[in-house]
Design a protein that fits this description.
Blueprint: H1 14-22, E1 30-34, H2 40-62, H3 68-74, H4 103-112, E2 116-119, H5 147-155, E3 161-166, H6 169-181, H7 192-200, H8 209-222, E4 248-252, H9 253-258, H10 260-270, H11 278-285, H12 291-296, H13 322-329, E5 331-333, E6 339-341, H14 342-348
Parallel strand pairs: 1-2, 1-3, 3-4
Antiparallel strand pairs: 5-6
């Protein structure tokens, strides 16, 4: 299926989209992927916190003594979640004259010794080629690669980890409306009824949520790494479970709200973070993932890539079901001019 071009915010150019797709992947790369307002920042905070905790406890679990300088470097923290997990597809995070990430992004990733990104790009817009590997872009490869093989090369990443977060779509719609209505760059100036119609029509930045879901569904339908037959040089992290052998992990906002601990354990397994004890997870880490805890530290999560209007608080409610309520309370007209709840229009969509 071919999707229409994705509408972009003013902070992203088509040139940056091309740079994103061509970024050479590394085996340790982690991408937190979602359609906007699906729990991206929450997952970003969870993933980064887990990776930092695994880094801190690595030497303790191994029973090794580290040099004081190494120990100090291992205990890094962040002032803002985007310090080490930046927004992938904004112009400011790329060098203007070449395909390199910006110096500030590279510097922080070097400190972490790993690259983490958050992104709202569709699956086919994300990079797939491993750093140091040559990709054959010709229509006919020397090895006589079949069309199915070419499709695999487009859908399967050579390495890296990709976490895809989904959320109930009415909640996404309501949250995105509040977000874009209070964002200076690309402000949405009409009411919720008009927004919902534009959102369903794919006219809002990042396009149709259905296109986004279908795009990643194609990745999940295969969920394997791409490897050229006979190539034994591809480096992937050592895998101990079936989940670790796959490039994609599916999370849902609702399941995270229902049983966060279980979903966090899935993330730990997926990323092969085996230096975090259950005691450390329960006592030190999980409490920081609570919405109220994040709200009290909102300065660490309020996006810095855009400007906010009216004193808008990015961490609004952190609940499920708000979108359905708004759609039930908002009226619109059907094709016959009859007044109906917006929810009915959504259900017919």
């Amino acid at each position: 299926m071919t999707f229409p071009p994705m509408p972009l915010l003013p902070i992203t150019s088509p040139e940056t989209i091309e740079k994103c797709k061509s970024l050479p992947l590394r085996p340790s790369d982690v991408f937190i992927c979602s359609y906007p307002k699906s729990g991206t920042t929450w997952t970003q905070h969870i993933v980064l916190s887990l990776i930092l905790a695994d880094r801190r406890h690595r030497s303790q679990k191994d029973g090794k003594q580290q040099h004081q300088q190494e120990q100090h470097e291992g205990n890094i923290d962040y002032d803002h979640v985007s310090d080490f997990a930046p927004f992938f597809e904004i112009d400011a995070h790329w060098e203007p004259n070449d395909n390199s990430l910006s110096e500030s992004v590279r510097r922080n990733h070097d400190r972490l010794e790993q690259r983490i990104f958050n992104t709202h790009l569709r699956w086919e817009m994300l990079p797939k080629q491993q750093e140091g590997k040559q990709q054959n872009n010709s229509h006919e490869s020397a090895a006589g690669e079949s069309p199915s093989g070419k499709e695999q090369q487009q859908l399967r990443p050579a390495c890296g980890k990709f976490i895809y977060v989904t959320r109930n779509l009415p909640d996404v719609c309501a949250s995105f409306y509040h977000h874009l209505s209070n964002q200076k760059e690309g402000t949405y100036t009409q009411g919720f009824e008009a927004f919902a119609r534009d959102w369903m029509a794919g006219k809002i930045p990042f396009g149709s949520p259905l296109h986004h879901l279908i795009s990643f569904a194609r990745g999940f339908s295969d969920n394997q790494y791409y490897a050229v037959e006979g190539d034994t040089t591809t480096q992937l992290p050592e895998a101990h479970t079936d989940q670790q052998q796959q490039p994609l992990l599916l999370l849902s906002y609702e399941k995270m709200k229902e049983n966060l601990r279980e979903e966090v354990l899935r993330i730990i397994d997926f990323l092969n973070l085996d230096n975090i004890s259950i005691e450390v997870l329960d006592e030190e880490i999980l409490p920081t993932f609570d919405f109220q805890s994040m709200k009290e530290n909102a300065h660490r999560f309020q996006p810095k890539s855009v400007t906010w209007l009216n004193g808008y608080q990015f961490l609004r409610k952190g609940i499920a079901g708000d979108g359905k309520k708004m759609m039930m309370e908002t009226t619109t007209h059907d094709e016959d001019g009859e007044i109906i709840p917006l929810m009915k229009l959504y259900r017919d969509w």
